[in-house]
Amino acid sequence: MEQKKAIKKVVKTNVKKDIKTSVKTRILRNIFFVLAVSMFISTVVSYLYFTRIVRDQKIADEEDRMKQVSGQITFMTEDIKGFTRSIIVDDKIQEIVDNTDDDSVYENIKKRFDMNKRLNFYNSLRSYIRGSFIEIN
Question: I want to staple 107 with a disulfide (CB 3.0 to 4.6 A). Which of 93, 95, 103, 127 is the partner?
């Protein structure tokens, strides 16, 4: 009988230990699950938030760059308009263009050379202009 009592006592303590360890295991499992879900949700929210911020920043940077390029193109367009006006009103070029009637071959070549020199002078004033020409009909 004492043996039975001792066996029952050992079984009860083992059952209590199993219950305690199973409770610990459940608690740890629940904590792990809550932490894993929390980390997953945090990761997803952070990804969505920072993706939006980075996308908005990239769009703003591109808009700024496009405004800058647009300003540069506008400046160059206005500068080229002024450049062509100054060529058109240049007295030497006007004189050459006006006197192209019935000249000798030598005179035509000399006038073209003079016009070429004058255009080269104007081209040297703008580094972004590679060359120019005037077509005389």
Answer: 103
